[in-house]
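Human: I'm a chemist; would you kindly supply sequence and structure tokens for a protein?

Assistant:
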Amino acid sequence: MQPAVGGSVRPVFRPVRVLVPLLLALSVVGCRARADVLVAVEPDGSGTVTVTATLDPDAVAQVGDVAAALKVDDLRSAGWKVTGPKKAGADTVITVSKPFAEASRLGAVLEELGGPDGPFPGWKLTSSNSFTVSSYELTGKIRLTGSLDQFSDGEVAAALDGFATGRSPEELTAALQDDPDALTLNVAVTLPGDLDDVSGLDRTDPAPDVAAEFFRLGDGRAVDTAVELRSSSTDRSAVLWVILGGGLIVASALLFVAGRQQARRRRGRRPAAAE
């Protein structure tokens, strides 16, 4: 935490913002590391942003104490849940996640991952509900400069010879030429219901509500991708009630008509009064 103007206190999200380079940029040569970002949206418009970093043994050897490097106490103070580091086969995995209580908060949580100039600018989630159908729309961008400096700030760079990763962009690009998949980012989104329209991500996952895309980090290639997803879900129980309600209305009308007709027939069969 650090004081702000006027004596108030505001949270510092720098440890979250540098999550990707801290785990990935320190493990370039001869190592493999991957960051998976998952945005999972619930039917009520809330959801969770989860970042999972996976490092191979060589990457862990270069990073050292992963938990200490991440400053997990700072992450928790910023509202992120930290799981790990733990072993997954030969690799080491650490996961951080943060919920958002309503659709309008998604953009702010994603901004914490990379700051205002980070990889997820302008993400916006909206939802609307009718009696039987709920619809969801997510828009935003994935913007990568091609340099891992994008994920850092002046304080980190000053501690690493003026570069966010301790290497110049040219050195990083050269190191990644032999193994372009050494540092990767996978972005996935799940929306309730079935995805109706998807752009910017790929629907290769067999699940109908998932879209994802794979990106290489630090290879000098810029990415500026517009993301747009729409989904809809039908409340089958509500539809059933509509059908049942409609059936009851029709049945009531038929019974009413049948009752009127039977009453007419009864009146028609009455004997005429004696004169």
Summary: The chain has a mean pLDDT of 74. Residues 6 and 175 are 46 Å apart (CA to CA). Residues 236-268 form one domain. The longest helix spans residues 236-268.
